[in-house]
Design brief:
Its EC number is 1.6.5.5. Keywords: NADP, Oxidoreductase. This protein has about 325 residues and is of the alpha/beta class. It folds into 2 domains: about 1-120 and about 270-320, Quinone Oxidoreductase, Chain A, domain 1 (Alpha-Beta Complex), CATH 3.90.180; about 140-260, Rossmann fold. Helices cover about 30% and strands about 25% of the residues. The protein has helices at about 40-50, 115-135, 150-160, 175-180, 195-200, 220-225, 250-255, 265, 270-285, 305-310; strands at about 1-5, 15-20, 30-40, 65-70, 85, 95-100, 105, 140-145, 165-170, 185-190, 210-215, 225-235, 260, 295-300, 320. Strands 3, 4, 5, 6, 7, 14 and 15 form a 7-stranded mixed β-sheet that branches. Helix 4 (about 175-180) links the parallel strand 9 and strand 10 (about 185-190). Helix 2 crosses helix 3 (about 150-160) and helix 2 crosses helix 9. The protein is globular and about 60 Å long. Bound molecules: NADP nicotinamide-adenine-dinucleotide phosphate. NADP nicotinamide-adenine-dinucleotide phosphate binds near residues 42, 149, 172, 176 and 236.
């Protein structure tokens, strides 16, 4: 028997319970992983509250690292003992062990330890999607990145700087500004000030090429105001709540803007797309071009406390749960 966090009803962090589960044996093309580290993501909160649907009872968690301890039939590329990491399109990571399809795994290079991998796989692949697939960020770009001191945000700032872009970053309050300045962001604003006016002043009224907005409801309309004509709005999260319906005319009157609402799993749907994105990410991390900031760890059993602190904006960088 192994232990896992499960919830039987949607709700606040208190619905997360530490229970005994039987994860079973891997079926064809599946493996069983013994987790050494599990990544915490805001998506886990959406799943817990019911904003994203899941069948109950369920074990949340879509990011992890560990060692393969059993393989099912038809597995050629992985073997017992391999160190692997993953970003999964469904829950199950908040567990001492899990069974999952081998095609979602990537082998971890020795330069990347398990905690870093658990902090990096889903968040870093998300950044690869944002900066390398949705829009290929260039030196001439000015990009606006919200929640820059968060898990995804810290990786995004470093990667955008590596690509040579000018980075305007926002954080919720002054307490988190220094953490983002240390990543060489060109400007670090707080959401407490008139950040739209600041963006306009920094860009000499032109606006930015791209906004990467994971905050959602609280920042969406103002983010549109920061774009230059034909700029791109990437709304990819709901940390403050989901964005309400928006009229296409709002895009037209601000200068023929583009709007997308991406999901990572559409950008890593095939094995080759996943491996290509992971190779790029893991190479940058192994060379320390991207440094993983694990701001806090919690025992996996204390996942409820980790959720509370993530939602209360008390975390910085990535958060890792330890089985
Ligand atoms: N579309 C995709 O495929 C995809 C994939 C992965 C992640 N995401 C999204 O990316 C975002 C970042 O994910 P993450 O796991 O790295 O989390 P995170 O950014 O570390 O999340 C916490 C941060 O969100 C910010 N925030 C802003 N408004 C908030 C509010 N009202 N309540 C709580 N926090 C608020 C806070 O930063 P400040 O204190 O600085 O305000 C907080 O520290 C999430 O929105 C997530 O849904 C999307």
């Amino acid at each position: 028997m192994t232990h896992a966090i499960r919830f039987h009803a949607h709700g606040g962090p208190d619905v997360l319970r530490w229970e005994q589960v039987d994860v079973g044996e891997p079926g064809p093309k599946e493996v069983r992983i013994r987790h050494t580290a599990v990544g915490l993501n805001f998506i886990d909160v959406y799943e817990r509250t019911g904003l994203y649907s899941s069948k109950l009872p369920t074990t949340p968690g879509r990011e992890g690292a560990g060692v393969i301890e059993a393989v099912g039939s038809g597995i050629r590329d992985f073997a017992v003992g391999d160190r692997v990491g993953y970003a999964a399109d469904r829950g199950g990571a908040y567990a001492e062990a899990r069974v999952m399809p081998a095609e979602r795994l990537v082998k971890l290079p020795s330069a990347i330890d398990d905690r870093s991998a658990a902090a990096l796989m889903l968040k870093g692949l998300t950044v690869q999607m944002l900066l390398r697939q949705i829009h290929r960020v260039r030196k001439s770009d000015i990009v606006l990145i919200h929640a820059a001191a968060g898990g995804v945000g810290m990786i995004a700032v470093q990667w955008a700087k590596h690509l040579g872009a000018t980075v305007i970053a926002t954080v919720g309050s002054a307490a988190k500004q220094d953490a983002v300045r240390a990543l060489r962001a060109d400007h670090v604003l707080t959401l407490e000030e008139d950040w739209v006016a600041q963006v306009k002043s920094i860009t000499r009224k032109r606006g930015v090429n791209v906004v990467y907005d994971s905050v959602g409801k609280d920042t969406f309309m103002q983010s549109l105001d920061c774009l230059r004509p034909r700029g791109l709005m990437v709304t990819y999260g709901n940390s403050s709540g989901p964005v309400p319906p928006v009229a296409p005319l709002e895009l037209s009157k601000r200068g023929s803007l583009f709007l997308t609402r991406p999901t990572l799993f559409n950008y890593t749907a095939t094995r080759s797309a996943l491996q290509r994105a992971a190779d790029e990410l893991l190479d940058l991390a192994a060379r320390s071009v991207i440094k993983v900031h694990v701001g806090q760890t919690y025992p996996l059993q204390d996942a409820a406390r980790a959720h509370r602190e993530l939602e209360a904006r008390q975390t910085t960088g990535s958060t890792v749960l330890l089985p």
